[in-house]
What does this fold into?
Amino acid sequence: MKIFPVAIPLVLLLASCSKPSIDSSSYFPLAQGLRWDYLVTSRVGDSIQLSDFSIHAGSEESINDAPHSVRITSDGTRYYIAENSSGIYRKAKRTLIENRPSIDDPPHWILKYPLRKGTHWSNPTYPFVLRRVYPYEERLTRGMNLKMTYQIASENDTVVVPAGRFDNCLRVEGEANLTLYADAKSGYEEILINTTEWYAPGVGLVKLLREEPLANEVFAGGNLVYELKSLHR
It folds into this structure.
């Protein structure tokens, strides 16, 4: 089977911003120098792929003369994050082949305040694992923009991942609808895409589950899981 690169959920890039100390009660530690290591499990059809993914918080950089936290991923992509009274959002990103950051307009909200059950927001998204398997193999890409609606569903979940057990986690749930046309025989397929994210106080994102269920002759879906392996302070 052809191997496709794993999509990076935006929320993984936003667990910290640059600040001088770690707030042990914060769901979003703000200390520069933190690094998160994740185990990534991708399941599509009968295929299971395991990989590692890491993020570290670099030094602040300016975007439009305003300081932004910089998140740097395993592949060298830099994400520029800011926070205001309404929440945390991504302002720009820059890949290794870009000379300057590409500005997000409008900004991509990651978490909206207040951090309590019922708070909701929306963001554009795209399929992470869905792919065409017939008559050729191709992953569905960012060109398929969808609107995902998020809300804080719980403030006291317990999550167990390779890094350990985490109590009092914030759980964020997201939903988006996707309509795909397969062919004249199969017609249209309606798919409900779900994202669930868990954040632990003093740690940040500890687990993410993306579900894109679909199985027919033309398309294959599955799920993608990020689980925290370690946090380096």
